[in-house]
Every structure is written in C-alpha cells, then in structure tokens.
Amino acid sequence: MFSESLNWTLRSIKLLRTAEFKPLVVFVKPPPLERLRETRAQTSPTELRSSGRSFTEEDFQQMLREAQLMEAQYGHLFEKTIVNDDLSAAFTELRKLLDHIQTQSHWVPVSWTHS
C-alpha cells in the first residue's frame, strides 16, 4: 500500500516538472538501519496510537528499500536530500532551505503575469 502511494506521488512529480513549472522537491531520506531502529523506538505512545501499531523489522527494511529505489530512480528530480536521523536537525535544515528560497528571485512564464 505504501509503495503504491509513493509511485503515484513520484509520477506526479514527473508530470509537474515542465518547462513552465519546476516544483521544489525535497527527499526526506530515512537514516541508516540502526539509527532508524533507535529513533522509531523513541516514538511516543500518542504517535503509536494514531497508527495503531509500532514499527516492525519488516517496516524498517521496506522503508530503506523504497528510499534506495526512490533515490536511484528519481534522485535527479530532488533539489535537496535531508536525512531524517534527528527530527529537530532535519526540520532546521528544511526551514533553512525554505528561508533561502524565499529570498531568491524566481522566473515565471509571462502568461502567469497577465490575467
């Protein structure tokens, strides 16, 4: 199920990226297996209740396999890759990227400037 939704999302990125529109694509990559186990073991009971269960070893393996596949097939579409081994650091890195982008000039097609 998770793979199917990712495939749809990745196809969308390919369709959206045109000569007129270039979305900012940030890939949030899982950390190495050991760190993934550690960080997910620290998941709060509230977070576990919302999903209904804790992560299994198969979940971890699937996350890593799918991340490798995504990076191999679609890495050329990513503007930035952030490794989510520390939530606070990953969020800070994403926030810095967004702040930086807001200060840059951006090209838009002339057709977008006329009503």
From TrEMBL:
It comes from the Eukaryota. Pfam families: Guanylate_kin (PF00625). Coiled coil: none annotated. Residues 1-99 form the Guanylate kinase-like domain. PANTHER family: MEMBRANE-ASSOCIATED GUANYLATE KINASE MAGUK. This is Guanylate kinase-like domain-containing protein. It comes from Knipowitschia caucasica (Caucasian dwarf goby).
